[in-house]
Amino acid sequence: MHLVHIIPLKLCYFVITWQSSNWKFMKVERQKLCGTNYPVCISFIVVNEFCERFSYYGMKAVLTLYFINYLHWDQNLSTAVYHAFSSLCYFTPILGALIADSWLGKFKTIVYLSVVYVLGHVVKSVGAIPSVGDSTIHIALSMMGLILIAFGTGGIKPCVAAFGGDQFDEEHMNERRKFFSIFYMSINAGSLLSTVITPILRGNVQCFGGDCYALAFGVPAILMVIALVVFISGSGMYKKSPPEGNVLLDVCRCLGLAIKNRWMSSKYDSKRKHWLDWAEEKYPKRLIHEIKMVLRVLVLFIPLPMFWALFDQQGSRWTLQATRMNMAFMLNALLILMFVPIFDVVVYPLIGLCRINLTPLKKMAVGMIFAALAFGAATLVEVNVMKTVVEPAPRGQCLLQVYNLADSDVKLSIPGSNLFSQPIKSYEDPQAYQHLELGGNNKTITVGINHNGHFHECRETFTEQKAYSLVLHSKTWGIVCQLVSLKFKYCSNRFINTRSEAVNVTMAGVDFYIPADYGISPNKTANNVHIAWQIPQYALMTAGEVMFSIPGIEFSYSQAPANMKSLLQAGWLLTVAFGNVIVLIVAEGAGLDQWMEFLLFAGLLVAVCIIFSIMAYFYTYVDPGELDKLFPDKTVNEDEDDLKKDQTDDTLYLNSIEKSTNM
């Protein structure tokens, strides 16, 4: 007779075999990937993260353009809502960590909040269907979908990375460190594909008579369903640590008691080495020591939001910068997939050969410098873009510029407007574009022209958000008006030919045919700033991200006690949330030109980097695994007693079966 009972213990199984009245104990290791020390279940977590990030970044890739082109919001409002959503996505991890550590555990938290995530995508997709209600319904559904997505993605964020780290044995620290690099590559592989595919779905696939935002949001919903299915498929292989009670509540109560006792203490009371020690009368020393560890890391996190304030503008300000350039080239998360292995295999080993101890905190400081340099490069690009681009007018207005090619000065009068009140010189560079109020989608206006004491009128129709050039030239019978509509997205060029014969002009490889007798060439784009000029800023920002974000995740996990890893991951993600809050404050309150705003962010990050470097210098790394040696509490003994009790129960059970068999 052969009976087997399996007792799960840490990352392996003890199989107790009873055969012919002899007990045998065998330690069975969990399945590993291709002879490595990586558990097989890691592959499910990595694929899940790839699909989830495809879903998230695919939706965000078109979100700003969706606000502008579909909901008809202006750039500042679109940027504000974009960063408010991003900020919410990084505030909700606190909720996810609380649920995981106190109630459901990491596995169930990921599963349940992924369902909320999927529902958010579905609602968002429905809100992008033009036939579903009016603009108010579209806005309501879009905001509801974004809120659900924020709770879904934010809730699982602190759990997935920590859950992956939990799958490794403590002796496989190097493998766990590399896992975080692989994990981060899966994030950016999903981002890479999504930021290429979803804009194509939006722009190249037409539905409902326009850009297909519904499909662009629907595909991320499908990917999130796949992410959920893949994650659940590995359920039987995971190490699932049960929740250990309301850790966050215990932490808050301990902090409150320590503050209260410290405040109420008198000068005659015995002194304590640390203010948290005032809670020792009620809480165990181990918990107090764990809170000290977490607080030291959280204090170190205080300067970090400034990095994310710069980083997350890739999806807002940098995207809007790109839309005003020649977009024949597209750059995205491909650089991450290149840089992560380059840094791990080449850069860091070379630095090690120079006997430089590049700790995670030092890497993060260098990452900040790279991000500041990236915004310096973005400033230079923005200055050149502004020279070649005319910003569109808001709704209800158009842009108007006047060219006077007559033989003398002219003076314009526009009913209900004081624009062009000064005489316009003959053959002089025109004034900058002026905002002409229309009061609606379009308006027909009679423009009065005073030339050499004679009054002439031109009746022209203007459409909102377009740019116009009004060209005036004189004939024997008076003034002739030519209203020309111009592109405002790129640097647009037109030629006016005052000669009596047609001419051809070639500029920057672009041919212009110009008719005779004040003929005007077709509007063509030439000599504009190519989007490839954004490569340096993206390369610098990517280098900064690799050196800041990956070591940051690893640092957060390695410095957290076992029962607070989700909590500290949530603290790390909160730095991203506050970074987006900084963008909101600056974007809405500073009122600076875009290039000045970029330069301001770069300078602020340099200052913050100096502060962070000083703080990091005084930080002492800890090993949470040493807590069991420092505080040999009853938990370990209780676990051993439980195991012995299970073995005793099994023995009694098997003996009863043996007796019944012999009867």
Identify low-pLDDT runs.
1-28, 634-663
Report how far the terminal alpha carbons are from each other. Answer: 15 Å
How does the overall form come out from the CA principal axes? elongated
Major sheet: size, sense and barrel closure? 4 strands, mixed
Number of strands: 18
If strands are numbered along the chain, what order do they take across the biggest sheet? 8-6-11-12
Strand content: 15-25%
Family: Belongs to the major facilitator superfamily. Proton-dependent oligopeptide transporter (POT/PTR) (TC 2.A.17) family.
Pfam family, one: PTR2
Membrane topology: Multi-pass membrane protein
Protein name: Solute carrier family 15 member 2
Element layout with pairings:
Blueprint: E1 2-9, E2 12-19, E3 22-29, H1 41-61, H2 63-69, H3 75-91, H4 93-127, H5 135-166, H6 173-203, E4 206-207, E5 210-211, H7 213-233, H8 247-264, H9 285-301, H10 305-311, H11 317-323, H12 334-353, H13 360-388, E6 397-404, E7 410-413, E8 434-437, E9 442-451, E10 454-463, E11 467-475, E12 478-486, E13 492-493, E14 496-497, E15 503-507, E16 510-514, E17 519-520, E18 524-525, H14 535-558, H15 565-589, H16 594-617, H17 627-630, H18 634-662
Parallel strand pairs: 6-11
Antiparallel strand pairs: 1-2, 2-3, 4-5, 6-8, 7-9, 9-10, 11-12, 13-18, 14-17, 15-16
What does this entry look like structurally?
It is a single chain. With 663 residues, the protein is an alpha+beta fold. The chain contains 18 helices and 18 strands. β11 and β12 (478-486) form a beta hairpin. The two termini are 15 Å apart. Mean pLDDT is 81; it is low at 1-28 and 634-663.
